[in-house]
Structures are given as structure tokens and as C-alpha cells.
Amino acid sequence: MSLHPVVAQVTEKIRERSRSTRSAYLQRLDATATRAISVDRMGCGNIAHAVAGMPLDDRFKVVTERAPNIGIVTAYNDMLSAHTPMQPYPDLIKCEARQHGATAQVAGGVPAMCDGVTQGTTGMELSLFSRDVIAMATAVSLSHDMFDAALMLGVCDKIVPGLLIGALHFGHLPMVFVPAGPMPSGLPNKEKARVRELAAQGLVGRDGLLDAELKSYHSPGTCTFYGTANSNQMLLEAMGLHVPGTAFVQPGGVLRDELTREAARTVLGIVKSSRRFSPIGKIVDEKAIVNAMVALLATGGSTNHLIHWVAVARSAGILIDWNDFSDLSDVVPLLTHVYPNGSADVNQFQAAGGTGFVIRELLDAGFMHEDVLTVRAGGIREYTREPAMQDGKLAWHEMGLSKDEAIVRPAGAPFSASGGLKLLEGNLGRSVIKVSAVPDDRHVIEAPARVFDSQEALHLAFQAGELDRDVICVVRWQGPQANGMPELHKLTPPLAVLQGKGFRVALVTDGRMSGASGKVPAAIHVSPESAAGGPLAKVRDGDVILLDAISGILEIMVPAADWAARQTAVMPEALRVANGLGMGRELFAGMRRNALAAEEGALSWT
């Protein structure tokens, strides 16, 4: 099947737009890649420090045999259920490297916070910028410059984008990403959401809510809904940065361990001394970025990636924007129904066909580039197959037909002919909305605004019964410069309750929503943000707003002259001070001050 013309056009637009920045990036990459190996170019004292902690046999391999040395960057901690299984990975990797005449060292650890723990708390205001901290920590880890390749151990929301951004700043190194897999299925996600909505109405107490949450999040492994963490894994598969089919194999067991060992074997197969040198900066090109965007849209993935993948692409000298996502979304079919876009969880998605089925369908229908470099010799086609243990060894087999067309469908019979995201534009700025889980009769909402300066204020209004009507809730001062752009997932239950009562409700905000959010219309990431003088700072209670996800409109229905003359509110001083104090937020003041807009990836380092 030939490449779909829109996919080809978007790719070419990105290539032209990125011509100078990508060229400069590749020149830096090539200059670094052509250097001599570390033991031949570094000082003797530097080398001695680098190998002093290694076992004697490993030290001999590095110094005398000049064997490849793998740097391991790990996001392991046991606060994140998704990262808990990674504790033994470094030892598995070191053992496997030795089997192939190589060595491995833990180059460094990166911080990894759980948004599920910090959701709705002050700590969430550190979440977005933790991505940039992770990128910098990755750079610090690799700055020892003693490595011929690297393995990136991470799974969750900001961790994978941060690791990938950091990795691309060391684009001369071959790298493979190593996940841990989802926890077994617990309380169904829809039942969890139902209990949360009942709790928001006071119909379920704290004990009942806690019981439901503990049954949902109950063991090591990634959360089972298709939020940002699991979207990360889909995108890494689509970019060819995993061992094929690794994303959703559950933790523990022989298969998971063997896939981790295979990651070491894979990265050793693409080091500079091999026949197939494949540095990550060459793998992540314009076509790989488009493949990731297509995979996100085809699976109704997390809106957070409209920020994160812009930042990832820029780290490789590639410039993408929300128009690119929107153009692709118009033609890319929606192939999956996984919660919050359906009732299935990622374990059921994996059983029905998983990432391999989706990638095969997109390739065969011409929605993904097949002529791309990956970490595997067989290219992106290898990612259409499923791994399993066969006679004690890893083997991959063809996916066949969908095992459940209520969960995954072929490209010829999709759930929807277009993707799950929509760009909104108008006199309130530019915004995005995830429509894949929004009921069809809620794609257009026109209602009076109620303006809030915090999510807490919205909760109080809801509890007081002030929102029992058609209403568009505007929550401002939530952008990167204002307070670090926290996720506002705690707003989902009360708004869902209002929608369930039959009211026409929506959210408009310059903040983010969780990758797990869905059924309530939400125009998010509004840019420019209110703290930067954006239009949300001019909205008043009672103004009628039109959110039209069909035509792509976000407009305030105020006469143009009146709107132009209206004064722009300034962030209240008490709120500004409060947003910058406590829970370590003072340390992030420079990041907030320097942050670019959401559509520019909310970068804090440029």
C-alpha cells in the first residue's frame, strides 16, 4: 500500500520546516560519533575513576579489550508501581552484556514522580517540569562519556519523554528503551470511575472510595488504563525504540526477563563497532516522529503528548505543531477502544492484538512510514509481531486477525474514520480537545461561562450546587508560566456528574487533563496562557462560549469591539505568591519564568 497523501504531505512540511535545525543537529551528532572510543581519547585518571568500581573482569574488558560498555539510565523507584519491577534489571543487563563480551554500568538514576500520588495536590505543580529535570538528569548520567550505547529504563508519564529528550541530546549513542509492563487487571476502570462520581456527589464515603482505588491499583506494574504512561509505550513501539512487542507484557516471569536481556543484545547489535551502527539521533527522524503521531491518534492516546512530543521532536532538531496533529487526525482512523475511550484495559488490548496489530494495520493501510530505521535489523515490520517463549527461547509470531473487534479493529473497519484529537481555534486562542471518548451529542457546547482561578474553587462551587445548569467552566492560571501546568484530573468526576444529570457542560483551561480523562468535553492547553496575557484572562462570568469540536472553533460570543476593549485580568498577587511557595516549588521558579507555550512543548531550557 502506498503512503497516504496527507501523511506524506505532513511529513514533507515538517521536513521543510525543520531543514536548518535538523541539519545542525545531525552535524553535531556526526562530529561526536566520529570520535575515538573513550579509553583512547580520555585521560588516564578519567578512565581510572570510571572503572574503579567495576569487577576486575569488567575492568579488563573496558580498558584492555576495549569492549562495548552500556550505560544504564534508570528511573527505578518503588513509589511508582510501574517502575517497581525494574529493580533487578541492571543486574540482568550486566549479566547478559558479559555473555556477549561487553560490560554495563548504571550511569545514573533519574527522578520519577507518580502523578497518581500527586494528582490534585501541590506536588502536581512540579509534574510537568519534572520532565525537563529527568532530561537533565539523563544528560548528567551520560556526561561521563564512557559509553558505547545506553539502555533507558522507564515507563510513566513524564519519565519516558524526559528520558527521550535527554537521550536525543546524546544522539550519537545507540539506545534502546526498556519498559516493565502493566499490572494485572483489577477493578474495571469504568467501575472505578463510577465510584469516583458517586463520591463526588457524597453518595460513597471515603472508605468506599479508598476500597475501589485499592482494588484498581493493586500490584507492581503500570496502571491499566490507556493514559499517558501506556501511550508512551505505544509511541516507542511505533518509533522502533523498543524490543518489538515489549510494551504490554506483564512484569515478572520468564518472558519479561528475557525481553529485558534482549534489550541488551539489541543495543549491542547497533554499536559503532557493529555492522549496523544506529545512533538514536538517526533513528528519530521526521518519519519516526510522524509514525509516533499517527500511532497516538489511531489509539486515542493521551493529550499530554501534544506537549511532550513537540519537545521530543525539537530535541532532534525537528519542528512540529498542533496543525500537524490536526491534519493527521483528519485522516488517521481510530482503531482501538481502550479505557477511557472504551471499557477494555491494556491487558485486554494486548490479548486482542495490542501494539503489533495496530502497527500492522497502519502500515498496510499506508498511514505509517515503513522505510524507517529502528533498533532492529528487520525494521518497523518486526513491530507487527508478538513475542513469546518457544523451546526456551524468544520467538515472534504474526498477529493474525483481531481477537476482539470491540477492542481493536482493522483499518478497513475502524471505530471512527478520523483520529481522537481535534485542534480548536478562535478568539480564545488555540487549544486541543480529545474527542474519542466524548459522546457525539456533546461535540458542540454553547453555554455561559463560570470563571475560576483554581480547581479548588470549582469543586466548592460544585458542592454548593452552583453549577447545576448548562455551563462552561473556565479554569485559568493553570499554564506553564502560572503554576507549572498541573493536570486537572480531579475535575473530571464533578463535571461528569453534571453531564450525567443532562446538563451541557464543558471545561476550558490553559492547564492539562490526565491522559485518562475523556467523556466530558475539555478544551485544554489554551495558548497563549492567561498568565502570559492570553484571552482567558479577559473572560467574565456569564460570557457565552462556543466550543465546537466538529468545526474546530473555540470562541467567546462577545462583540468584537467590546472584546478588544475589555481589560485583561492579572493573576492575583496572592495566588502568584502561593503558587511559588512550598513543596519545593521555589526551586522551579526559573522553569516557570522561562517556559515556552504548550504548543512549543512547554520547554524550559531554551
TrEMBL record:
EC number: 4.2.1.12
Keywords recorded for this protein, A-Z: 4Fe-4S, Carbohydrate metabolism, Gluconate utilization, Iron, Iron-sulfur, Lyase, Metal-binding
Major enzyme class: lyase
Every Dihydroxy-acid/6-phosphogluconate dehydratase C-terminal domain range: 407-602
Record flagged with keyword rRNA processing: no
A Pfam family this chain is assigned to: ILVD_EDD_N
Residues the entry annotates as binding [4Fe-4S] cluster: 156, 223
One GO CC annotation: cytosol
Cofactor requirement: [4Fe-4S] cluster
Biological processes, Gene Ontology terms: D-gluconate metabolic process; Entner-Doudoroff pathway through 6-phosphogluconate
MF (Gene Ontology): 4 iron, 4 sulfur cluster binding; metal ion binding; phosphogluconate dehydratase activity
Record's cofactor remark: Binds 1 [4Fe-4S] cluster.
Chain ranges of the Dihydroxy-acid/6-phosphogluconate dehydratase N-terminal domain: 68-381
Pathway where it operates: Carbohydrate metabolism; Entner-Doudoroff pathway
Reaction(s) catalysed by this chain's protein: 6-phospho-D-gluconate = 2-dehydro-3-deoxy-6-phospho-D-gluconate + H2O
Entries under NCBIfam families matching the protein: edd
PANTHER family (alphabetical): D-XYLONATE DEHYDRATASE, PHOSPHOGLUCONATE DEHYDRATASE
Known role: Catalyzes the dehydration of 6-phospho-D-gluconate to 2-dehydro-3-deoxy-6-phospho-D-gluconate.
Family: Belongs to the IlvD/Edd family.
The protein, known as: Phosphogluconate dehydratase
Organism: Polaromonas eurypsychrophila
Underlying gene: edd
